[in-house]
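Problem: given the chain below (121 residues), write out its structure.
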Amino acid sequence: MKDLLIVGIGGFIGSASRYGVYLLSLKNFADKPYIGTLVVNLIGCFLIGLLSGGLVKLNSQTSLFLIAGLCGGFTTFSTFALDGLRLIREGFILQFFLYSSVSMIGGLAICFAGFFLASRI
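Solution.
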């Protein structure tokens, strides 16, 4: 039960942070709400790469809080999928492919970069 609470608190902080990034992105990209999701997912991929790569030595509860809770709450594949569907339905096919490619390839690359950086420190 304690672990569930730890993950829940991390998830709350991650979700609230994701919403904050979304609001900030709307100020700069009101016509492109998917930009906030892209930024969140790329930051989250880098952060989870750093954490899982050993940037800091994590005990099991800290790992639950940061990786499962914070990163899990902060990033959002379901919103990525919904944003992609909206782009397709609105006829923005090129933007959909660009957004999807940058999200997936960029996310994987930046996760690797975080992991690599953490293993070198």
